Amino acid sequence: MDIVEAIRSRKSIRGYKSTLVAKETLKEILDIAARAPSSDNAQTWELTVVTGEVLDSIRWGNVELLTSGVVPNPDFALGRLEGVYRRREVELAIQVFPLMGIAREDRDERAQWRQRGFRFFDAPTAIILSADSSLSESRILLYAGLITQNICLAALNYDLGTCIGMQGVMYPDVVRQFTNIPESKRIILSIAIGYLDGDFQANKLESKREPMESINIPPANYPNG
Ligand SMILES: Cc1cc2nc3c(=O)[nH]c(=O)nc-3n(C[C@H](O)[C@H](O)[C@H](O)COP(=O)(O)O)c2cc1C
Fold first, then answer.
1. Measured between alpha carbons, how far is 46 from 180 in angstroms, rounded to an integer?
2. Is the pTM of this model over 0.85?
3. Backbone φ, ψ for residue 130 (5° rounding)
4. What's the CA-to-centroid distance between 165 and ligand 1, angstroms?
């Protein structure tokens, strides 16, 4: 797939077919994605593929804590959004809920929707990113972002959809319990991956971006304006 087409067509997929992604396909995607740059070529990311019973155990472990009201304690907290960032967050919800037939005031349906994230959107496979806790946050997060985007783009070449998810790793001890990720690693995020369910309405979502005019390229910096 052409790189521009891949960047333009990538979007978050939140509904999947149960078809398993072949191990060989996943290996190819991760091998390609690991071409991501990192300063000093430190390659600080660590990838753990979870599927089958292990993934189910994490899903339902997450749901149990969430529904019991246990406050999430991610290794990297994103924090609340305010101002223009909060506006964009709300705009996203305003797009998603009608697609899913969820009324704004329906707290129960909204909670169910939230829970999907903690279930890795019921994807057959998820990739967990972690890194050694001896590393600086900058090295962990910047390089994780680069390989994450590569995974999401490379997946498209194999007709696979992805959704990056903080929700899946909001209870990192659940992830640790069912994987071999030790205490000495910080869990960063998850990527749900699988074949997209064409009937799942939220997959039709085209998230918005700010218009190009908001990008600051002063004409004076160019010889011809
Ligand atoms: C670091 C990161 C964490 C995210 N976590 C979640 C999540 O927990 N749940 C979710 O539904 N989407 C999550 N997303 C997906 C974003 O909501 C999505 O990328 C954004 O709305 C833009 O939409 P698009 O991916 O379809 O272009 C996350 C994205 C990133 C980059």
1. 12
2. yes
3. -140, 170
4. 6
Q: Is 202 in the pocket of ligand 1 (CB under 6 A)?
A: no
Counting ligand 1 atoms within 8 A of each CB, the residue from 10, 11, 12, 204 with the most, and so the one to mutate, is: 12
222: exposed, middle or buried (Cβ count in 10 Å: 0-12, 13-18, 19+): exposed
Could you tell me which residues come within 8 angstroms of residue 183 by beta carbon, excluding any fewer than 6 positions away? 176
CA distance 158 to 151: 11
Backbone angles phi, psi at 193, to 5 degrees: -145, 135
> Which residue has the least CA distance to atom 7 on ligand 1?
165
pLDDT in tens, 133-165: 999 999 999 999 999 999 999 999 999 999 999
Helix (H, G, I), strand (E, B) or coil at 84: helix
